[in-house]
Structure formats: C-alpha cells, structure tokens
Write a structure and sequence with these properties.
The complex is a heterodimer of chains A (about 475) and B (about 1150). Chain A has helices spanning about 1-25, 40-65, 85-110, 110-135, 155-175, 195-210, 220-230, 250-255, 265-275, 275-280, 285-290, 335-350, 355-370, 375-385, 395-405, 410-420, 445-450, and strands spanning about 240, 330-335. Chain A is mainly alpha-helical. A two-stranded antiparallel sheet of chain A has the order 1-2. In chain A, about 55% of the residues are buried. By secondary structure, chain B is mainly beta. Chain B has 16 helices and 58 strands. Chain B has a 22-stranded antiparallel barrel. Classes of the chains: A mainly alpha (about 475), B mainly beta (about 1150). At the A-B interface, helix 1, helix 2, helix 3, helix 8 and helix 17 of A face strand 31, strand 32, strand 33, strand 37 and strand 38 of B.
Chain lengths: ~475, ~1150
C-alpha cells in the first residue's frame, strides 16, 4: 500500500510536469529583436552611421590638421599624447559589420544594388580606419564565434581591398537588375539613386589613388580616369543632412554653448582664412564662425588652451548659426570641390598646368557655392592676386592650401598633410607637444589591446604608414 | 508556526507536525478532582476521540494519557450536552469501544480493556493499574520565565512533546529505566538531563535553559525551509539571529552581516541613501562578468530577486551604484533569523539558483500566547567616514600662473600669491570633497504585534524609514508592512501565509559624477553657494558645473512597490508521510523618473551641461517571479536507523519588462511631462525565464551520531536550447558526532563533530544568450537612435550567442569540524573547501572587429579554495557580569584554470585613467579572478624581463635620461593587485553588566587592492595632498638604463624650473598620472563597524505598568577605521552592487559614520 501510494504520487508529479514541460520552456526566442532585419533598415544604418564615422574620425584628425583646438591647455589630442579612440574603433567596426551583413542578405535575396552600396560603404569606412591605424583586421573580421581574435591585415593589402570593393560596387550598381532596388527613404546619402552611388564610388577610388603620391605606384592618369566618372557638380556630393536630433557638428556647437567646451577653431585655420597668414580675408570665414566679442576672428593655439575667459567668446568657435554647425548642416563625406582639387593635383603632377589651374579655380568656386557665398564674393576672391596666380605660377602648395580650406572638417586633410609632410605655410608643432616631430598615426585603442592583445602591435605615434614613407 | 515551535534536536520532530507523534502520553499532576463532581458543557460533531479528550482537557484540569494507536480508530463522534459530569461523559464516549479509563490524580489514563485486567468499567482512583512511567516538568529560562514551545524528547526513542505556553510538559509511556531527556528551544542552549523512570511513577524534572551563544545544538532553517538541527548537517552553516542583527542597527540588514559570518565578503558600495550592498560567498564562482555572483535570497521559502533592481537600463536608466538592492526592502526589525548556506551540499536542493550560496531569511512569526506589542525607534546622525586628503596650498590656474577663469582648479600659484593678484580670493581653500557633503540623518519607527493560541496566530508590523543622505538633496524613504498568519486546522493539516509589502521612494544622485565635478571645482569657491538670485546655476570660477546645482536639479527618483506574498499548507495523512506545498509571488514595479530643467531663458544664464535643454525620462521595470514548490517527506525508522526521504518539484516562472521613454528638450523649461519634450525615443524589453526542477534527498541518521544525506536534482531551463536544457547534479554529505560515540572523552570536551560533503551544481545561461539578433537602433545600449522621418535603422546586436551553449558545472568538496568545550563555553568551527567550476558560461568581451563586443560562450574553468573559522567564547559568566566573544575569519584563493581555447585572456572591464594609466580587469589562466591590470612603473631589469604578468617590485625604478621615472607602454599591462580580499575577519564582543549591555564589532578586509580613479584625477589636477611638493627639486630614486644610479636633480613643477629647463606640464601630469601602479592601492582596512551600548529598564520598575520591557541604547557605526587607501571608503566601488567589477573603485562615495539612538518598548 505504502509503495503504491509513493509510486502514484511520484508518477502524478512527473506526468503533471512532463506533459507540458517542453512547451513551457520554449520561450527562449528573443522577443525584443529580429532574427532577420529589413534590409532597408541596414541601409538606413549604413548610410546614416557613415556620417558619424566621418565625424568621429574628423574629431581626431581636425586637431592634428589644426582645424580645431581644445580650449584646455595641454589637451592630449592637441599635444600628440596617446588618446584612447576605442569608441571610434568600435563604432566604425559596428558599421562595417552591418555592411558585411547587408551584403550577405543582399546576395541571398539577389538585391544587387544593396550589394553595391554595401561594398562602397565598406570601402569608405575601412579606408577611414586604415588611415588612422594602418594594419587592422578585415579578412578575419566579422566572423563572430568562429574567430573573435582576428589577425590584423597588412595595410597595403587592405588599400588594394578598398579599390577592389569600389570596383565591385560599381559593377553591381551598374547591373540593370539593380535599378530601383534601393529604398529611397532609407538611403540617407543618395536617396536610392544608383548612378549617384557609382559617382561616389569613383570619387572614393580617386581619393585612394590620389593618396599614394609618395609611392612609386602613384599614377595621376588613373586618378583622372576615376574622376572622369565622378562628380560633375555640388549636387553629386555624398552627404547626410537628416539625423535623429541634431547633426554631429551642430551638437558640438550646442554642447559648447552649454559649456561642454568643444568645436573651438584652431589659430592655424583662422590664420589661413583671416588676413594674418596670407594678407587677405577668406569670405568663407564669416560663414564658418562668429567674430569674438572684441570684433576679431581669433583661434586657439593647439596645446596652449584658451587665452581668455571660456564664456566671453574671446575666441572663435563653431556656433549654432553657421554653415557647418547650424541645424540641418550637411555632414560631408565626399564633395565635388574635393574632386576638383584632386583633379588639379593630378593634372599638376602630370605637367598639365592649365588644366590644373582650371580645376583649382573650379574647386574654390564649388566650395564657395556650396557655402552659399554670393557670386560677387566668389569673383572677388578668385580675382585676388594671391589666388588668381595664373597657371604658370600655380604650385602644389597653393592647391593644397585651398584644398585645406575647402575640405574643412574632412578627414582627408590629415592624409594630405602627411603626404606633404605637413609642409603647409607656417604649420607648426602644437604648444606643449609631447613629440618633437609631427604625428603620423594614432595608437591602437584600449578595447583592441584588451580583447585582441596578442595580435596588436606596439606602435609609436611617429611611425609612418605605408603610403607616407 | 509549528515548524518553529516544535522544532527539536530530532529530525522527525522538526520536519513534521509537532503535535503528531505516533504515540505519546500526556500526564499531569495536581490536586485530585472528583470526576463525578466536575460538570462541563460538551459538544462534538464528527470528531474523534482524541479531540473529545482535548475538549475535556480545555474545560477541566484533567489530563488524558493514551496511546494514539488505541484511540485513533474511533472517529465521527457526535454528542452534545449542556451539562454533564466527566465520568458520565467518559462512559458515553467509551461505550462501544474496547477502551476503559483510570484516574490517577488529575491524570486520566485510557487503556484497552484487556489491559485493565479484572477492572470494572468504572474504577476508583486507587485501583492499581499496570502502566508505564512518565515525566512531567516545566521549562523556563534563566529569569524563570516559561519557554513555551520548547521541544522535549527522549533520546533513542521516538518520543517527544512540546511544552505548552506555560512551559509545562508531560511525556508518558516510558518503560522503567534511565533516559536522556533533551530539551531544545530556538535561541537557547540545548539541555540534556538523565531521568530515572520507575513503573507507574511520574518523575518531576525542570529545565532552565540558557540563551544560546553558539549554534551547535540549534535548529536552523536549511534548504527549502527544512528545519534541521545543526548537529545533523554534513556541511557548515551559520546563523545570525534577530538579536545579533539588531545589535548592529544597520538599516540595510545585509550590512549587519558584516564581520559576522565566515566566508562572506560584504562590501557596502558607499553611504548613499538606500544604497546597495555587494555580498560574495566563498569567492567568485562565476567568471561571467555580467552575471551576478550574489547569493540567492530566500525569504520565508520564497526566492527573492535581488539583482535586476540594480540594472542599469542603458546609460541613463539608473544611477548605477547608488540603486537599492530589493532585498534591502525588508525591514531589519522583521527578521527572525538569517542563515547562510555556503557550500554546494547546503544549497543543492535549491538548484542552480543557489549556486553562489543561499541566504535564508526567516521573518518573525507569532508565538502562542498573549498579545505582544513592540515599538522601536532609532534616529541617527550621519557623516562621511573618510575623505581624501587634499592639498591646501595652491589655487586656480596652470603652470603656477593665477587665472580665475582657468579650467585647472589647483595648478596655479599659492593662495598667498593669488591674493596679492586678486584681493577677492579667499584666505583658505575649501576642503572641496568634505565641504561638498552634508550631515545626513536616518529615522526608523517600527510597530509590531503578535498574538494567537495553539490553533492560530498572527503577527504583523509596520515600519517607516526616512533617510536624508550626506550627498545633498538625496533621500530614501521606505514604508514597509508585513502580515503573517499560521493555522493548525487539525493534526493532519496546517497552513500559513505571509505577505510583505514595501513602498520605497528615493532620489539618487550619481556620486561618481558628484565627486568628479568636485575634482574640477576650484576650491577657492563655495560649492554650496549654487544659485543665482534668479534661480539659475551660479557661475563659478572654473566654468565647470556646480555639483550642488546638479544634485539639486538633475533628479533621479525611483519609486518602488514591492510585494512578496507566499502561502503554504502541510498535509500529513500518515505518520510517516507528509506533503508541503508552497506558492509564492515576488513582484515589484520600479518606476524611475529622471528629470532636469532646461534653460530658464534669463540673461547670462549658465546652461548646465548635464541638464542640457531639459529632459524627462521614464523607466518602468515590472518584474514578477512565481515560485511553486512541492515537497513530499517520507519517514521511517529501522531500529537505530532513521531515514527521511524527500522528493520535490520546484518551478520558477520569472518575467521582467522594462519600458523606457526618453523625452529631451523641454518646451516649458521645468514642466516634467513627456508631452512637453520635443524629442522622444522609446523602447522596451521583455525577459522571460523559467526553470523546472525535480529533486530528492535521502537523509539517514544512525543512532543520533552518524548522519548521511544524499541529494539529487534535475533542472530544465528555458535559457538553453532543447538539447542542452536538462541537467542533473547530486551531492552527498556526512556528519559524524564523535563525542556521542567515544565515551572516554574528558568532561571538558562537550561536543565534537566531523563533517564532509561533496556536491555538484549546474548553472544555466541568461535568457536569450543562445542567439544572434538584429535590433532597432532605438534599443541600442550605447548609441540609441530613434526613427528619422519614419525610417528605423537596424543593426546587428553586439551581444552574440551560440545555440550550442551547455550548462556549466561547479563541484564543491568541503571538510570541517564543529567542536565545543567546557560545557559549551568555547566553541570552534572549522571548514576547508575547494570548488571547481567548468564550462563557465561567460559573455566574453570580444574585439569589435569580430562583429560583436560580447559573445556568450562556455569558456573557462575556475577553482576556489579556502578556510573558514568561527569561534565563540564566554570567558566570564557571573551573576551580574557576562562576556561573550565571537571571532570569525576566512581566507579564499582562486585560480582561473583555463579559458576558451585560443583566447589568452577574457576582459571583464576597463576603467579610465589618464595617459596610459587605464586599468583592466581580466581573466588569464593561472591567475586570479579580480586581478587588476595596469601599467607599472618601469623597473630596471638587468636581464630581459621574462615575466609578462607580474611586477618585481624589489627591482629599482628605471629613470630616463630626463631624470624622471620611465613610463611603460599600455601594451605592457601587468597585475597590480586583486580586488578580492584574501582575508576577511571579524571579532565581536558583548559585555553585559546587570542591565547594561555593551557590544562592539571590529572587522577587516586584508590583502586587497583597488584602482582608485579619484586619486588618478587628484594627481592629474594637482589636488592630492602629495602634489604639494610640486615646486621642489628632487632626485628620483632609481637607476638609469645602464644600471648606474640616477643622480639627476629635476624640478616637479610646470613650465620653466629654477634650473632653466622647461618641464612642460610638470611631473604629475607628464609622469605620475600616467602610471596605473600609482593608483592601484592597498584597500585593506580595519573598522570599528559597530559600537552599541544598551540599557534595559529593570523589570521590577515596570511590574505595575502596562509596559513589559523597555530598553534604550546608543549605537555608533564606522566610528573608527585604519586604512592606507587614499580615496573615500576602501570598501566602496563605482560598480553596481552585484557586479564583478568592484576592483574599479571610480570616484565612489564615502561610507556613513553614524551616531544612532535607539528605543525599544514592549507592551
């Protein structure tokens, strides 16, 4: 009797619970997320976030090229100290990962235009990282559990990869099957226009080809060929204007107004654009910043910190009502003006000075138009003797000086400066510099040291990248 | 109720209904009454004979003696009479049975007629009847007060009884002989006395119990609420009683455990109102940096969620470290006892949730007897216990140059030089950290009442707690109430229900942010002067935010309703079988609201960077856990062997939903309504978790000295894929009381037990960690981005998982002994343990280049081993003066045995330090959990340095050509310390003299290090006291690269030194701040945790008043501390209370130094 009672009660419990157990426990499907995202959602992220990758990189390089300077004396970024750029590294790789996934989904669904955009944005963001860090993971990246301690690829081979990706992107977007595939509302860069993407791909390719002037592989003709298929006007520019809230530079201006001091112009950039370095005012300066309370344009010397009070506008900053930092300001990824300056440099290096001069003036004009300057201002500027030097007197230095202004806040300027060994007029080491020469690269971020330590090499900030030898 | 009243040294007493024994006889003695002259009103419906006897007992002074087996079969009696004499009534009741009765004084003995040889149906009191003997007596305490509910048992026999409310008991049916009578009662030492029983005699014996000071013979609540005597356990167990908890007077009862329990490392994260406490039992068992290593809390049999309340909800949904643990919602005055189950064998029945140890909390319950009302109140004045040493010489500016607008608070000239330039400069700098904090206070009122009889009882309490923090504008309120009832419906059925309801409300400010702001604050200004006349933030010289203004306006209010409700019923249809079913719900809703005003729009307004354009953010956490537990118990005795088999089923169903709605940029600057926000990002997250467990335990007790338990449990979890979700684990434990068996021990050797156990336990993963998913950017934890023009951005979730994840297993072996000497005046417990966890489920921090920042993997093996020792001594026991000492200490070491194949390390977390001084906590095989890695000071290695992980601190410091110590690159991070103390110790003393009682507790953590981020900033900003030497020229002690001693004098200041050399930013910024080793500090401490003096009013004075007892007292908490740590309290950490990142102290919070006054009155 006892045994039977025990058996019955145990059996009862077992039946009660096994009967519904499996179903009861089948609740591990994450209700907060999707196994497969809408592919347009990935495109939206890839295009919108590429504005932020650009911004994050620029927020480093703009201090090295002295567009910006910290109001804090001895600031680490200004003075070539090691800074931890983990957030930029993580953010950029996050975007690269999503583009990697978008390409896979696109192949599965046979959406060739999405494949093309994935390739172009991969090339663009990879190139940004490449020019900061040199050797970085790519061929072993994005593998998740299969390999989460990826080896770093050689920077030269990744440079070639970028070109291959762009070429492939161009082919994919040229495929007639890809017409109308891209979601226009989800494409924050080109509104779903395949042809516009192809032009951008060519511009980025030109940028890559133009970057290797120090190497024997440099071929100005190849740069010019790429540019031929590239932008024809400012309307072709790759830029993002729509953001969740304020755009990144607008936010910098807002933060600065809130005393989270940021976006202070460097005395070098102000020196180039006011009359102190070249003896004439650049009409773009008033479009970029405000005069100080005492009626001047005054920048902050990198490394020296602010000279007056931080609140009385004794120094020029990016304000909330100027072109680069006003609400709705575009975040520039690639511009027609840059294309013209690349053309000018390539023509110059090919010995075609008249073509170079034409492109040089076109670059200035394009940028000034972009900044909505009056035609008279533009005409005045390009008639200044120091600007309108004539094709015979055109120099690379002059081309690069104008490119420096036209590419304000764009990461490409640091590539240019390194190519020219910082030989820009009166460009100097920052005050309190931690190095006795110009910076050539940045250190790997803490996050990569701590998660992939055995693959990360020890580097110095004075080490030259492969194309900067 | 019954489980506590009738708990006894014998297991069968404790686990079943105390009233039900297979047979026992009650006897009473007193003036003889004539049965025929005692007339009572009597009524019984569908009752049994036993109940009828009980009714007569209640109405008369007679006691019935019978064997249950004789009377059990006579049921369904129906009889009523308005007045009947007892003799007639008995005849009526016994007619038709084979039973008769015999009167012996006031005892009426019921026996089978066959035994009443030749006896007539009615007998007079002198008839000689052959019956067995018995004992009768009374149990009192040292004051002579009765101890109701004490358990009286006869060793070796299956006989026992509980004393009634008057402390009286009777136990019969004993054959002639000498017996050992054992009396146990909770809170008292067990007494064992021999008693001689002779035929037909009732032996009188009285017991006077002494209050317990050690737990050797106590009954403790073990897994699943099973009461077991400590002697029967094969593992270590330590209980902290209500009295001990009350002595500590901590408002979070977890703090009261500090220094009390061996093997427990408790760190209060700081002195914030309602702030959480970190509890680690026997070291870290789980390498998972994201999973809590906190023990499971079980309140009245119901597991209570302690972790999710500290969840961070992205970067804005919490004030991290400051948030309260949900367990702290429990009013310490409501707790009867806290029992700490440490090893695998102790917690095996709880299954995977008990893998980090279990803290079993039993709340107070009513004892049968009169209504007791208790009122207690405490009021305390609180201050910060420790503040960092700051320099007082130098003021605002940089490079020694005065600048009243400088960002740099103290790199300027001396105060004297500054006054010469700026006459408005004050003469003395503020001690900026200390000055920023205020005096806090705490006030608690508790009213409790309890009462009932032996059928039903109820107890309840209500308490109100209010704390004003030492960080300005922070507060915490807690209204808690509790109701519990116990019913005994019949000998077969009893039930109970408890409900605990708490409402808390607090404003939490981020203490890390507060201290960070104070680091940027120029100490020549008064941070307390934070408002301009127009009500906006007062401008301050450094143009940095004002910490007081932020604390005032940037609010984070958490409003929590927390209910823990449970009920149980125990049914015992057979004397060898019982079933208990328990059901409980733990539910809380935490409504969090973060608000800050936007700009008011007045001229020259400072717009606070934390407040921006104003925001209103709502975070709602709704969490509920449902627990169902069925426990079947089977008892059997085979001669000297007692066996108990328990089988059970356990189900947990947990669901948490969090909703966050973040509104930014307010239209009306101070209207905190979501409809007033111009930008809104919303997201929610639902988490469901279920476990089903089946478990069994076989407990064997051989002759009261050898105890063996075997357990097994199978869990099915919802968080692993179907193939891996079922897992089984088991334990075996053995206890051997050698003093029971070895007869020739000296008399001073009172008690000795050897115990050992081996246990396995499995663990599952966190929900949803086996899959890889895509999320909308609005729920991205780091960069939430809302829809743009209706377009939602999607991204791969950075937290990836694999479907092949399998359960992790921990195996624990422990061996120990419990010894007691000199009649229990000295007790020692010793335990050695070793545990090993395999296939640890860890969200491994991965390189973002892999596509993920964490991947949850079975990655790693860890081993913990250690010792735990507790000692109790009573050096002095006299009539008026008593002295008790309690000592405990524990030592734990652990080693990471292996991690995921191919991985060389797993990163737990990183904390920022300037230049190259960021530190990382990571796991490296062969090293310990809690290791803090950072850059060391470069040292001179004559031979190449072959040890990549450890620093040889004996070697001389390497000095560069510039005369300053060399900096190591970040890639050369080495182990600079470990965040878990190697030794934890506590020593408590209780001295009582007449009505005075003095209690004090010292405790300490030893051999422990923390990264003091505050100190890193104090170096970088020239705030630390040691930076006062900045204008000195010194020669650094060390050697040059060629091995020769450094002789180069260098100036420590900024700019051009007296020697004409430009030193740039100076030693502290160029060198000192960039070396982690300077900031990974010794965080060992010794604290006078508690000092309390209590005066109990003389009961004689109260005799005529309605007050039964009263006491007043003073308690000081953290009155004294010794430590070398430079920051605030060495215990505090900026990591949330249940995080593994406690080696990264951050800026933290001072702990409280409290001066508390207590009053306690019983009516």
């Amino acid at each position: 009797m006892k045994k039977i009672t025990i058996r019955i009660s145990v059996l009862f419990v077992l039946v009660l619970f096994f009967g519904s157990c499996k179903k009861y426990l089948d609740i591990n499907e994450n209700p907060n997320a999707a196994v497969e995202p809408p592919i347009a959602g990935l495109l939206a992220h890839g295009t919108n976030a590429s504005a932020y990758t650009t911004f994050k990189v620029s927020n480093i390089t703009s201090y090295y090229v002295q567009y910006l300077a910290s109001p804090t004396k001895g600031n680490d970024l200004d003075t070539y100290n090691i800074t931890d750029e983990s957030s930029t590294w993580s953010y950029n790789y996050d975007v690269l990962t999503d583009m990697h996934a978008m390409r896979d989904f696109a192949i599965n669904k046979n959406l060739v235009a999405y494949e093309g955009v994935a390739d172009i944005l991969t090339a663009y963001n990879l190139h940004l990282n490449l020019n900061l860090w040199g050797d970085i993971p790519y061929s072993q990246a994005f593998q998740g559990v299969t390999n989460f301690i990826p080896k770093l690829d050689d920077q030269k081979s990744l440079y070639d990869t970028c070109i291959t990706l762009l070429d492939r992107g161009i082919v994919e977007l040229s495929d007639p099957a890809g017409d109308g595939q891209l979601s226009s509302s989800s494409d924050f860069i080109h509104g779903g226009d395949n042809a516009a993407w192809i032009k951008t791909a060519y511009l980025l390719k030109a940028r890559l080809l133009n970057q290797i002037t120090k190497t024997s592989a440099y071929d100005p003709a190849a740069v010019l060929t790429a540019l031929t298929n590239s932008y024809e006007s400012n309307d072709d520019d790759a830029q993002v204007t729509l953001f969740d809230g304020s755009g990144p530079w607008t936010q910098v201006a807002i933060n600065n107004a809130l005393l989270l001091l940021d976006g202070w112009l460097s005395s070098y950039f102000v020196g180039v654009t006011n009359d102190s370095l070249y003896g004439y005012y650049d009409p773009r300066l008033p479009v970029i910043t405000n005069k100080t309370t005492d009626g001047f344009y005054r920048g902050t010397q990198n490394g020296a910190g602010h000279s007056g009070s931080t609140t009385d506008q004794g120094e020029s900053v990016l304000p909330e009502d100027k072109w680069y930092s006003e609400p709705g300001a575009p975040l520039l990824i690639a511009t027609y003006a840059e294309a013209k300056f690349m053309e000018s440099e390539a023509q110059f290096r090919s010995g075609h000075k008249p073509e170079a001069y034409t492109a040089y003036l076109a670059g200035i004009t394009a940028n000034m138009k972009k900044l909505n300057l009056a035609d008279s201002s533009i005409t005045n500027y390009i008639s200044l003797p120091a600007v309108a030097v004539g094709s015979g007197n055109l120099t690379l230095t002059l081309i690069m000086k104008e490119k420096y202004i036209a590419c304000f806040l764009m990461p490409v300027t640091w590539d240019d400066m390194r190519r020219f060994d910082y030989a820009y007029k009166q460009f100097q080491l920052p005050a309190n510099a931690n190095l006795d020469e110009f910076i050539r690269r940045i250190d790997y971020p803490t996050i990569e040291f701590s998660t992939n330590g055995k693959n990360v090499p020890n580097v110095k900030l004075t080490d030259h990248l492969w194309w900067d030898q | 109720m019954k489980k506590n009243i009738y708990s006894g040294g014998l297991k069968y007493v404790s686990i079943s209904l105390g009233l039900m024994f297979s047979s026992f006889i009650l006897l009473a003695k007193g003036p003889t009454q004539d049965l025929s002259k005692t007339v009572i009103a009597f009524e019984i419906k569908h009752g049994n004979l036993k109940q009828a006897f009980r009714i007569i007992e209640n109405e008369t002074r007679f006691f019935f003696t019978f064997k249950t087996e004789d009377v059990l079969r006579y049921s369904d009696l129906n009889f009523s009479s308005p007045g009947i004499s007892v003799d007639k009534l008995l005849n009526k009741l016994l007619s038709g049975t084979n039973l008769g009765y015999q009167q012996l004084d006031n005892n009426i003995i019921i026996k089978k007629i066959s035994l009443l040889a030749d006896a007539p149906q009615q007998m007079d009191g002198n008839t000689d009847l052959a019956f067995e003997g018995g004992v009768h007596g009374k149990v009192t305490n040292e004051k002579g007060e009765p101890v109701g509910g004490a358990s009286i048992s006869i060793e070796g026999l299956k006989k026992g009884v509980a004393a009634n409310a008057n402390g009286e008991f009777s136990l019969g049916g004993l054959k002639e002989g000498i017996y050992q009578v054992t009396v146990t009662a909770i809170g008292y030492n067990t007494e064992v006395h021999p008693v001689v029983i002779t035929e037909n005699n009732i032996t009188e014996i009285s017991f006077q119990l002494k209050l317990t000071t050690n737990n050797l013979n106590d009954v403790v609540v073990t897994a699943l609420g099973i009461n077991r005597s400590v002697r029967s356990l094969g593992y270590s167990s330590q209980e902290v009683s209500a009295k001990e908890l009350t002595e500590a007077h901590q408002n979070n009862f977890l703090n009261s455990l500090q220094g009390r329990v061996a093997g427990l490392t408790i760190s209060s994260a700081g002195g914030g109102p309602g702030q959480g406490v970190s509890v680690i039992i026997r070291g870290v068992n789980s390498l998972n940096p994201g999973k809590s290593n906190e023990p499971l809390y079980v309140v009245d049999g119901i597991p209570v969620d302690n972790g999710s309340s500290t969840m961070t909800l992205g970067t804005e949904g919490a004030r991290g470290v400051q948030m309260a643990n949900r367990v702290s919602d429990i009013n310490p005055d409501d707790i009867e006892s806290v029992n700490i189950l440490r090893g695998g064998a102790a917690t095996a029945l709880y299954g995977l949730r008990g893998a980090n140890g279990v803290i079993v909390i039993t709340t107070k319950y009513a004892k049968a007897g009169k209504l007791v009302v208790n009122y207690s109140a405490s009021y305390s004045i609180d201050k910060g216990d420790k503040f960092p040493d700051v320099q007082s010489t130098y003021t605002q500016g940089f490079g020694g140059v005065y600048d009243s607008a400088s960002f740099w608070p103290t790199w300027g000239p001396t105060v004297k030089d500054a006054i010469a330039i700026d006459p408005t400069h004050r003469a003395v700098l503020y001690d900026q950290y200390e000055h920023a904090y205020v005096t806090g206070n705490q006030f608690r009122n508790t009213l409790s009442l309890q009462g009932g009889n032996d059928k039903a009882s109820v107890s309840g309490s209500v308490s109100y707690f209010n704390q004003n923090g030492i960080l300005p504008f922070t507060y915490y309120k807690n209204l808690s109430s509790r109701l519990s009832g116990r019913w005994i419906f019949s000998d077969q059925l009893n039930a109970g229900a408890d409900i605990l309801f708490t409402h808390t409300n607090g404003n939490f400010y981020d203490a890390d942010r507060f201290s960070e702001e104070m680091t940027y604050w120029a100490p020549r200004s008064d941070v307390r002067d934070y408002l301009k006349p127009d009500g906006t933030e007062k401008e301050n010289p450094a143009n940095n935010g004002n910490a007081w203004y932020k604390a005032k306006t940037n609010q984070f209010i958490s409003d929590v309703y927390h209910t823990i409700a449970s009920g149980y019923a125990t049914y015992k249809p057979l004397n060898w079988f019982s079933a208990t079913y328990r059901f409980g719900v733990d539910q809380f809703s935490d409504n969090r609201s973060a608000t800050a005003p936007g700009p008011k729009g007045v001229p020259d307004e400072i717009i606070d960077e934390d407040n921006g354009f104003g925001f209103v953010r709502k975070f709602n956490i709704n969490s509920r856990s449902i627990n169902s537990n069925l426990l079947l118990t089977f008892d059997h005795t085979w001669g000297k062997l007692q066996t108990t088999l328990r089988l059970g089923n356990d189900v947990l169903d947990q669901q948490t939903e969090t909703t966050s709605t973040k509104g930014d940029t307010l239209d009306v600057y101070n209207l905190f309504n979501l409809s007033n926000a111009k930008k809104i990002v919303a997201s929610n997250e639902l988490t469901q978790y279920r476990i089903v467990g089946l478990y069994g335990e076989l407990a064997l007790n051989y002759d009261q000295f050898l105890y063996l338990s075997i357990t097994g449990r199978n869990d099915w979890t919802s968080t692993l894929e179907a193939d891996n979700r079922s897992f089984f684990y088991s334990s075996v434990s053995l206890g051997y009381i050698f003093t029971q068996q070895i007869k020739n021990l000296p008399s001073w050797f009172s008690y000795g037990k050897f115990r050992t156990s081996l246990a396995g336990i499995g663990k599952d993963a966190a929900p949803y960690s086996t899959s890889t998913v895509y999320i909308p950017m609005s729920s991205d934890p780091i960069n939430p981005v809302g829809p743009i023009n209706g377009v939602i951005q999607w991204t791969l979730d950075n937290r990836g998982g694999v479907a092949t994840l399998k359960p992790e297993f921990t195996t624990t072996f422990e061996v120990g002994t419990d010894l007691s000497f000199f009649n229990n005046r000295l007790g020692v417990n010793f335990t050695w343990y070793k545990s090993k966890s395999q296939d640890q489920i860890i969200p491994v921090s991965t390189s973002p280049t892999s596509g993920f920042t964490t991947l949850t993997l079975n990655a790693g093996e860890i081993q913990n081993s250690g010792i735990e020792v507790t000692m109790n001594a009573k050096p002095v026991i006299t009539k008026n003066f008593n002295w008790n000492i309690g000592v405990n200490f524990s030592h734990n070491t652990n080693e990471v045995l292996s991690i995921y194949p191919g991985l060389s390390e797993i990163v737990v977390g990183t904390q920022f330090g300037y230049s190259r001084s960021s530190v990382t906590m990571k796991y490296i095989p062969g090293e310990s959990v809690g290791d803090i890695f950072g850059t060391p000071t470069s040292r001179y290695y004559a031979k190449p340095d072959t040890d990549p992980l450890h620093v040889n601190k004996k070697l001389p410091v390497l000095i560069g050509d510039d005369g300053f110590p060399e900096l190591e690159p970040e890639t050369n991070q080495k182990i600079l310390g470990n965040a878990y103390p190697k030794w934890v110790a506590g020593i408590s003393n209780t001295l009582t003299y007449k009505s005075f009682s003095l209690y004090f507790l010292f405790d300490g953590h030893f051999d422990v290090q923390k990264y003091d981020q505050l100190n890193n900033f104090m170096s970088a900003f020239g705030i630390a006291k040691y930076t006062e030497n900045r204008n000195q020229t010194i020669v650094f002690d060390g050697v040059l690269e060629n091995g020769t001693k450094n002789t180069k004098p260098v100036w420590l200041g900024q700019g051009v030194g007296p020697d004409g050399v430009d030193y740039g930013n100076g030693y502290y910024r160029n060198v000192h701040r960039g070396v982690s080793e300077n900031f990974v500090e010794d965080a060992s401490f010794i604290k006078l945790r508690t000092l309390s003096l209590t005066y109990n009013l003389n009961p004689k004075w109260l005799q005529k008043s309605f007050v039964k007892a009263a006491s007043v007292g003073f308690t000081g908490i953290n009155l004294w501390m010794h430590t070398n740590y430079k920051g605030y309290d060495p215990e505090s950490s900026s990591a949330p209370a249940n995080s593994n990142l406690n080696g990264l102290a951050g800026f933290t919070y001072p702990a409280l130094k409290s001066y508390m006054f207590n009053l306690n009155v019983t009516f």
